[in-house]
Amino acid sequence: MSAEFATINWRGRPVRIECQWIAPERTDAPLIVFLHEGLGSIAMWKDFPAQVCNAANARGLVFSRPGYGRSTPRADDEIWDVDFMHRQAHEVLPALFTALKLDDEKPWLFGHSDGGSISLLYASRFPDRVSGLVVLAPHIFVEDVTVANIEQARTAYLSTDLPAKLGRYHDSADSAFWGWNRIWLHPPFREWNIEAELDTIRCPVLAIQGIDDEYGTLAQIHGIATRVRGCELLEIPECGHSPHRDRPDRVIVAATSFIAKNRRQTP
Question: Locate the AB hydrolase-1 domain: which residues (predicted)?
């Protein structure tokens, strides 16, 4: 499947967003939108979104956020602030949906890590525009273990071949890595917390996390369940920060069953 591009106006300039459709011919099927992690892109999902859509008999939209993949890289002077995930949820995602003529859709959002947090923030701000969420290893507050491992990632980027590896998936590895790394290690970001914002979410939510997640503890998804009525949790043993890579079959079964069940219950 080849990628296409949509253009939005963001931060005062046109930004090209790399997009890829899965099974667009399924016109009457639900739409699942996949939101990648802090160093992710369309290419880094590999064939997992297609597997989910085939199992769920759904259409899919995968895209690379600004600064990632083949989307417009960050400007040299563009430094992300503490609200960077809010801006993705409140500005970029609505603009992308408008550009793709999806304003009349109520998609399911499938988000991993930062993409999971962005999905939660979108559902909080626009509770009537989303059918449901599947979030993998989302962050709702900052933990010491997260910061410690992101510090290790910084060391690896400066001292190993990590830039070359990321360069396979991004037009600018520096754009992707430093945008993510600098804000997560920015001291004021330690106070970032979206727990209170979860109270306005009205759609079904499935929150999945690996028990061996190196970037967060189970307190993240337990915090979501405390705030979101009816939230379902799945804790997966022998699984790290990327359940869709570590235990793909378990995630696909859980996600597709969750979507099918909630579609039947929705008038």
Answer: 32-252
> Fold for domain 4-265?
Rossmann fold (3.40.50)
Task: Please state, in angstroms and rounded to a whole number, the distance separating the CA atoms of residues 27 and 49.
Answer: 17
Distances (CA, A) of 85 to 7, 23, 192, 218: 20, 28, 10, 21
pTM score above 0.85:
yes
Q: Is the pLDDT of residue 2 over 70?
A: no
Alpha-carbon separation of residue 110 from 25, 73, 129, 143, 181 (angstroms): 20, 23, 14, 23, 23
Predicted confidence band of residue 1 (pLDDT cuts 50, 70, 90)? low
Q: Report the alpha-carbon distance of residue 255 to residue 106 in Å, rounded.
A: 17
Rounded distance, CA 44 to CA 77, Å? 26
Q: Specify the DSSP class assigned to residue 141.
A: B
Residue 199: HSE in the Cβ half-sphere, 13 Å Cα cutoff = 3
What is 186-248 written as a DSSP string?
SGGGGG-B-TGGGGG--S-EEEEEETT-TT--THHHHHHHHHSTT-EEEEESS--S-HHHHSH
State CA 197 to chain mean position distance: 17
69 in Cβ contact with 18 (< 8 Å): yes
206 - beta bridge partners? 134, 232
Burial label for 125, CB within 10 Å (0-12, 13-18, 19+), is middle
Given a contact cutoff of 8 angstroms between Cβ atoms, the answer to whether 3 and 62 are in contact is: no
